[in-house]
């Protein structure tokens, strides 16, 4: 097994372990989200640089891949080294997620109303029969988004769990690439 595959495999395992920690401690994950993002940016960039180096030997490298890995490394180091940047990332994520819920809810309502309108215009019994489920989902998303803006605790837990799952998936992907 090439050195790059071994390192990529090990980094994938580290990411899976990090992701499992996030799943077990979602609130702590949220509170350390900026730091976790920084660490994983560095891990990903090291893997990217090693992979670029191996591809360069095979004549299949891209300068853009190397530039992306170096950019991730720089931003990861900045994020780990700055408590203020970590706090900004933490605060931004929860409020962006709440706003995202509201926007997606509004879009779902618009889609539901459009389906209902088309259904009525075509006088179709089968087409868009359950348009009201999309409408209800949209309303619930808006309610969750508004509640999250005023009390983001539930969203914080959901973000921590989601983040952990995404890190596990990224780690599994690194292991699959190494195999």
Automatic annotation (TrEMBL):
UniProt-listed InterPro entries: Acid_resist_chaperone_HdeD (IPR052712), DUF308_memb (IPR005325)
Tell me the Pfam families matching this sequence.
DUF308
Keywords of this protein's UniProt record, alphabetized?
Answer: Membrane, Transmembrane, Transmembrane helix
Please tell me whether the keyword Membrane is annotated for this protein.
Answer: yes
TM annotation in the entry: 7-27, 33-52, 64-87, 93-111, 131-150, 156-178
Please identify the protein, giving its name as recorded: DUF308 domain-containing protein
């Amino acid at each position: 097994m090439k050195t790059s595959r071994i390192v990529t495999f090990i980094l994938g395992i580290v990411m899976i372990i990090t992701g499992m920690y996030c799943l077990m401690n979602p609130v702590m994950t949220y509170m350390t989200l900026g730091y976790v993002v920084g660490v994983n940016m560095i891990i990903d960039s090291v893997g990217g640089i090693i992979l670029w180096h191996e591809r360069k030997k095979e004549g299949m490298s891209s300068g853009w891949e190397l530039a992306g890995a170096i950019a991730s490394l720089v931003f990861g180091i900045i994020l780990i080294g700055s408590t203020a940047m970590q706090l900004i990332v933490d605060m931004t994520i929860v409020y962006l997620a709440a706003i995202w819920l509201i926007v997606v809810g509004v879009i779902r309502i618009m889609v539901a109303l459009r389906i209902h309108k088309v259904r009525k215009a075509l006088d179709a019994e089968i087409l868009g029969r359950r348009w009201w489920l999309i409408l209800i989902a949209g309303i619930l998303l808006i309610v969750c988004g508004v509640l999250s803006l005023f009390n983001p605790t539930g969203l914080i837990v959901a973000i921590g769990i989601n983040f952990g799952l995404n890190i596990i998936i990224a780690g599994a992907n690194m292991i699959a690439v190494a195999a």
